[in-house]
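Standup notes, structure subgroup. Blocker cleared on the protoporphyrin IX containing FE input:
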Amino acid sequence: MVSSAVGARRLGALGTLRAFRRDPLGLLERLAAEGDVVRARVPGADSWLLNHPDLVQGVFVTDHRSFHKGPTIQATKMLLGESLLTSEGEYHHRHRRLIQPLFHREPIASYAGAMVRHATMTSDGWRDGQSFDARAEMAALTLAVVGEALFGIGVGDHRARVVTRALTEALEIFDRVYSPLYRLIVRLPSPTMRRYRRIESQLNRVVEGMIAERRNGPRGDDVLSLLLDASENGDGMTDRQVRDEALTLFLAGHETTANALAWTWCLLSEHRESERALHAELDHVLDDREPTFEDLPRLRYTDAVISESLRLRPPAWAIGRTAIAEHRAGEHTITKGSIVVVSPWLLHHDPRWWRDADTFRPERWLEVDDRPRYAYMPFGAGPRACVGRPFAQTEATLVLATIARRWRLRVRPGALIEPQAVLTLRPRYGVPVIAERRT
Ligand code: HEM
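Run returned:
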């Protein structure tokens, strides 16, 4: 049963804003302690935190037409423009229909080779006893996979390096300038914003170059060719729209998966029993060869490790919506213009839905599951759920299998590992590890 709402009385509007800037996860936890429907005061909009699977279903599925994307995704328009992630209504529907086939089973199976190959190349570069930041390694790896699988950018292509550097920097800047006051901040002619504009034009040049290449030369089965074919078949997509979709897939397709993998290495390093069970499965199923797409149904524990990591450290830690019509949440009326926040972080740690909620226990995914459906939503829910989910799950499982077959990554003793809730949930200081070769 949904517990009744209370106003978040203890914090004023500015107090809520300050608490959000300082410690967003802490603020969510404080608010959720007050009930499943909590109204918080934030400057500029009436804001509601909804923390129950039935309420999630109401907003994301049953009454999804009453909502648009929330302020954070709206803010990413400064980089991504009008794309699958940021657009609404008929525009979104048309682009989703166009892009969805890239994530059907057959194309995903064809990307598996690139996923394994890049994981092998990355880990072949490590030496036994070497220290590095696993988060940075995973970010470079997932970007290379998206570049090759979706855009046909080969290894060593200088464009991959330009996009990697520019996207990483653009994200850092976005994380820094994003706040409920960002609309004002991005208009200021600050050095940060000037740097941001420079990076943006680098990204545009690379993507525009790739579009021109496809317009004038042979097409393949990559995403740009698909979008350009559509634009020439009367679907009316301009170069700008193609650019927006391309950057969105680059960004959404690597940052989240990189963080998911980085957190997975961290959790495995802390839970040796689970790590042993993972190795046992890999040794049994793969013996002495690389994993393939066809192995996935037998890599059940490996898959469970990823699901559990996404539960405890969901990269999309909060998902926002703006109400464009009135919505009923339990016994409460959410009025048009209000902001609604649902937090996978809160739902995934809630002892009402999870036994030993804070414990990393991949085995739970191999047991009978009688949880409410929307108690777990790392990829969102309803018609706006992640289009890249099959890509992400295949990639995370294959990368984990490929690397864990050969390596243990041990978090460096004394390293401070702390979640930082920015655009995604990332390890604030990276994941410093020491690589140990498995014999
Ligand atoms: C572990 C990895 C990933 C996680 C946790 C994740 C999470 C999410 C979530 C929660 C949403 C819904 C946002 C909302 O409702 O506002 C979303 C949407 C989206 N994701 Fe992912 N994602 C992941 C990987 C990927 C990949 C690999 C791609 C593409 C290659 C991708 C592309 C997208 C796009 C385009 C959308 C917008 C879909 C739409 O609105 O139609 N994501 N993702």
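Discussed briefly. The chain has a mean pLDDT of 90.
Next: hand off to the docking folks.
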